[in-house]
Amino acid sequence: MTTAPSSEGSRSMNDAHRVLVLNSGSSSVKYQLLDMRDRSRLATGLVERIGESSSRLVHTPLAGGGEPRERTGRIADHEQALKAAADELAADGLGLDSPELAAIGHRVVHGGLRFSEPTVITDEVLTEIERLVPVAPLHNPANITGIRTAQALRPDLPQVAVFDTAFHTTMPEHAARYAIDVETADAHRIRRYGFHGTSHAYVSRRTAELLGRPVAEVNVIVLHLGNGASASAVAGGRCVETSMGLTPLEGLVMGTRSGDVDPAVTFHLKRVAGMSTDEIDVLLNKRSGLVGLCGDNDMREIRRRVDEGDERAALAFDIYIHRLKKYIGAYSAVLGRVDAVVFTAGVGENSAPVREAALAGLEGFGLAVDADRNAVRSGEPRLISPDDARVAVAVVPTDEELEIAGQTFALVHN
Question: Which residue in 15, 77, 123, 164 is the catalytic one?
Answer without folding.
Answer: 164
